[in-house]
Amino acid sequence: MRLPALFAFLPALAMAAGQPIPEGFFPPPPAAPAKGEGVCLECEGRGKVESALRAIDTGENGTTFRRACPACGGRGRAVRALTPGERERLQRQALNAYEREQRAARRTPIGAGFMEAEAAKALSPEAHAALAARFPKRCRVCLGLGVEECRKCDGRGKVGRLERVEGEDGETRTETVVSVCAACGGSGAVPCRRCDGSGLAKVCTRCDGLGTVEVEAKRDEPAHTELCRSCKGDGRR
Ligand SMILES: [Zn+2]
Ligand SMILES: [Zn+2]
Ligand SMILES: [Zn+2]
Ligand SMILES: [Zn+2]
User: Fold this and answer.
1) How far is the CA of 137 from the centre of ligand 1 (A)?
2) Of 40, 79, 133, 163, which has the most beta carbons under 10 Å away?
3) How many angstroms separate the alpha carbon of residue 78 from the centre of ligand 1?
4) How far is the CA of 236 from the centre of ligand 2 (A)?
């Protein structure tokens, strides 16, 4: 049956919105969100901060004030940019749940996703490789996030360093001076060292990332294309 001309634009729209997912294919979970609720980093979850102000009006020296943390309103938790470590934990949880489900159903891994075994078997090597390229296998270190937690600041983007300061009373005290972490520029994240920030598994050297290899004709076999055995058609490993 031919489609009426009126609907001829539909496939083009589907292409624009991303190709339809082939039947029987289960895409991997999306990347963990960049923002979410976590322990407030300003007060470390205590809900209170010690004020650096001194009681100038009463003339009292060395008085410290504990007040509700302004960043979280005293809740100890805040919606904020998640640290790479927190994102990695979320990502790992989601991936583990996804993979358990796929393996329990005995589906076939293709790229970062899985496919019903029968549907996967029916794919041509080219179609298999194309699907793997569309859902590329992820880096096993950063799980596709492309970033790692900065070790200098534990993902906080700030570092505290003890400094001796002279107070108005002439006494020297030790104070923690907080500054932007120089190693990550304050983002708390550095590019993943394994994938250089791409989030992808390494390109397979046997097939140059194609996922397929050309096999020359033999006595009882014509020339043909088959899945690369090193990467199982993923093009990455
Ligand atoms: Zn707080
Ligand atoms: Zn990586
Ligand atoms: Zn840092
Ligand atoms: Zn390969």
Assistant:
1) 38
2) 40
3) 7
4) 13
